[in-house]
Amino acid sequence: MDSSADPAGLGAQLAALTTEAFRPDLADIDRLPTRDIAGIMNAEDATVAAAVASRLPEIAAAIDATAERMARGGRLIYAGAGTAGRLGVLDASECPPTFNTGPGQVVGLIAGGPKALVAAVEGAEDDAARAAADLDAMELGPDDTVVGVSASGRTPYAVGAVRHARAAGALTVGLACNAGSALGAAAEHAVEVVVGPELLTGSTRLKAGTAQKLVLNMISTITMMRLGKTYGNLMVDVRASNEKLRARSRRIVSLATGAADDEIEAALTGAGGEVKNAILILLGEVDGPTAARLLAESHGHLRAALRAAGAAHG
């Protein structure tokens, strides 16, 4: 739950937030059978996707703007506190193995630093100046995107990050779960997914957290699609860092090309293990160095590289 730099008015602020509203109809929920409580939670969760769906135009606009900047070398930076901050760090940490993003290309900033991932850091979410300092340490630029994440939409660390980033000329997105939030007002792109009161009053790790995870999934995944990190619905930029991922790499090449196992192994060897290059070798009928060159000239977009390979053959 968010705290405030203005304790005197905090109670009134929280009372006005949808995410903090009390549900009298659930006042005796702890007395129900476990199966009934689980059913109520499941029914509550089922409403989240519809709340996200109502904000798809705003989400899509934010993604297109983010992808445009990342195509120029910009970074995607999430900033939040508590659950929101942890979700941002989670999404950022999963981009390198899934999309082979470079170091620092997708970053999650959490109020209080890495130790806040596993333990509460007293007062960290109230520190807007710390958010500015964290961004300054990254040498923020106009091609970067900063996504402030806060269920309440008033967390000082998230709002401070967005305000500082916008002043620096970066693209800004405010992801909140209350309408008319300070975070949404501070950002160029406001994404306010209103999921309603929580089953446990004010426990925004529940529906609000689920909504934030869904939106962050969209932002990172679709942005990477726009950057050519996928081929259809295949993860062609997957980083094969363990045996499971190596097996997945072989399967992806198989699904994309329909080639025989020995051809796939030869292509992956010729591509230095790079899935995208191996697919281009097989479908474009080129060698490893040519595949690497065509992909570089196509800025990593496999479909464009395949067209270039076809033109070269033609």
From TrEMBL:
Sections of the chain in a coiled coil: none
Active-site residue list: 94, 125
Residue ranges occupied by any SIS domain in the UniProt entry: 66-229
Catalytic activity: N-acetyl-D-muramate 6-phosphate + H2O = N-acetyl-D-glucosamine 6-phosphate + (R)-lactate
Record has Cytoplasm as a keyword: no
UniProt pathway: Amino-sugar metabolism; N-acetylmuramate degradation
One Pfam match: GKRP_SIS_N
Note: A lyase-type mechanism (elimination/hydration) is suggested for the cleavage of the lactyl ether bond of MurNAc 6-phosphate, with the formation of an alpha,beta-unsaturated aldehyde intermediate with (E)-stereochemistry, followed by the syn addition of water to give product.
GO molecular function terms noted in the UniProt entry: lyase activity
UniProt key word Lyase: yes
Family: Belongs to the GCKR-like family. MurNAc-6-P etherase subfamily.
Record key words, sorted: Carbohydrate metabolism, Lyase
Listed InterPro entries: Etherase_MurQ (IPR005488), Glucokinase_regulatory_CS (IPR005486), MURQ/GCKR (IPR040190), SIS_dom (IPR001347), SIS_dom_sf (IPR046348)
Subunit organization: Homodimer.
Gene3D superfamilies for this protein: 1.10.8.1080, Glucose-6-phosphate isomerase like protein, domain 1
E.C. no: 4.2.1.126
PANTHER family listed in its UniProt record: GLUCOKINASE REGULATORY PROTEIN (PTHR10088)
Protein name: N-acetylmuramic acid 6-phosphate etherase
Physiological role: Specifically catalyzes the cleavage of the D-lactyl ether substituent of MurNAc 6-phosphate, producing GlcNAc 6-phosphate and D-lactate.
